[in-house]
Design goal:
single chain; alpha/beta; Dihydrodipicolinate Reductase, domain 2; 2 domains; seven-stranded mixed beta sheet; six-stranded mixed beta sheet; 31% helix; 24% strand; globular; binds 5'-O-monophosphoryladenylyl(2'->5')adenylyl(2'->5')adenosine; binds trans-cyclohexane-1,4-dicarboxylic acid
């Protein structure tokens, strides 16, 4: 049923993504009646500010969802597997930021600019895609509609904030220690991340790819709704705090020029073209942090094949890559139903 105000729960409210969810709900003036902040017992009693008031964090339990209309989950896949079905039983619609349900056939995997129509089919859970996938499909969908993408080759340069607060502290601490000529401690990532690039995000699978790389392959096809698109990815962690950057090469069935790509993308929702190479203007992580858009630049034709385009895609991984996309899904949901 439609309501004037909704009871919204944020699971993992004290984490990097959860924090961002709370501020985006406020910024966008989402019609929140009651805000329920949930995390582990480590955070019990902490307070987070929402619309000028301090809201207490409670321990997540199976009974946390009574009266909740919408539950935004971002506390890792194991918490989602355990608690999202409980939230649904209590009558909430779950928008889940973890990888737990993304590839379930019954669960819509949604990027509002690309496949908002899928929201209607939900059975209680809607999945928020992987951050690297979201920013890529926002930029590629308009090109796919115009020229039909055959193949995508992507390499990512991913910020540490995607891994959460512990990883943000680790990059800070390692940087400080190196400058103080101290021994560096490695705990979150398999290697030192300060002043380094690590070609591993998440664990390796039998095919030699990482889980993050295969998420980009499978989620891209599901969101665009075309299993014929071939995707190959290399995902790399870089010492950047916020915003993922991606070098993307596509091959299309129909020829599309660089000018046409620029024109299409400058009209596309959620995208901003930043592409003036003569003045060294192109998307940068430091300019994209804190912003909502997916920034695209370095657009050029791939001279090694007939129908190819190269581009550089940057977006804030905690915002469009996670919290903002989830809140946008919630906005569409309340427009259409519950
Ligand atoms: O368990 P997993 O699947 O490996 O996932 C945990 C990781 O998932 C990150 C998350 O980042 C964390 O690194 N993550 C976020 N979004 C994700 C996504 N889409 C994602 N992983 C995959 N896909 P985070 O640390 O920024 O946020 C974690 C949030 O989840 C809450 N949480 C954790 N366990 C919980 C839980 N909530 C309910 N029940 C549980 N059992 C977590 O709350 C936070 O909100 P918290 O209270 O546990 O943490 C508050 C602060 O404490 C620090 N901290 C975290 N772990 C420890 C810790 N301190 C001491 N010891 C620890 N072991 C954090 O810095 C956090 O700020
Ligand atoms: O599937 O940067 O949402 O470590 C969460 C962790 C994406 C990568 C997901 C990271 C992942 C992210």
């Amino acid at each position: 049923m439609k309501k004037d105000k909704y009871t919204v729960a944020v699971v993992g409210a004290t984490g990097a993504v959860g924090n961002e969810m709370v501020s985006i709900l406020e910024e966008r003036n989402f019609p929140v009646g009651d805000l329920r902040l949930l995390a582990s017992e480590r955070s019990e009693g902490k307070q987070i500010e929402f619309k000028g008031k301090k809201v207490k964090v409670h321990k997540l339990t199976k009974d946390s969802f009574k009266g909740v209309d919408i539950a935004l989950f971002s506390a890792g896949a194991s918490r989602s597997l355990e608690f999202a079905p409980e939230a649904v039983k209590s009558g909430a619609v779950v928008i889940d930021n973890s990888s737990a349900f993304r590839m379930e056939p019954d669960v819509p995997l949604v990027v509002p600019e690309v496949n908002s129509h899928a929201i209607k089919k939900h059975k209680g859970i809607i999945a928020n895609p992987n951050c690297s996938t979201i920013q890529m499909v926002v930029a590629l969908k308009p090109i796919h509609d115009a020229a039909q993408i055959k193949r995508i080759v992507v390499s990512t340069y991913q910020a540490v904030s995607g891994t959460g607060k512990k990883a943000i502290s680790e990059l800070e601490q390692q940087t400080r220690d190196l400058f103080s000529l101290k021994e560096v401690t490695v705990s979150v990532y398999p290697h030192q991340i300060a002043f380094n690039c690590i070609p591993q995000i998440d664990v390796f699978l039998d095919n030699g790819y990482t889980k993050e790389e295969m998420k980009m392959v499978n989620e891209t096809r599901k969101i665009i709704g075309d299993d014929s698109i071939r995707v190959t990815a290399t995902t790399v962690r870089v010492p950047v705090f916020a915003a993922h950057s991606e070098s993307v090469n596509i091959e299309t069935h129909k020829k599309i020029t660089r000018d046409k790509v620029r024109e299409l993308l400058s009209k596309s929702p959620g995208v901003e073209v930043v592409d003036n190479p003569n003045n060294s203007i192109y998307p940068l992580a430091i300019n994209s942090a804190g912003r909502d858009e997916v920034f695209v630049g370095r657009i050029r034709e791939d001279e090694s094949i007939d129908n190819g385009i190269n581009m550089w895609i940057v977006s804030d991984n905690l915002r469009k890559g996670a919290a903002l996309n989830a809140v946008q899904i919630a906005e569409m949901l309340i427009k259409s139903e519950i």
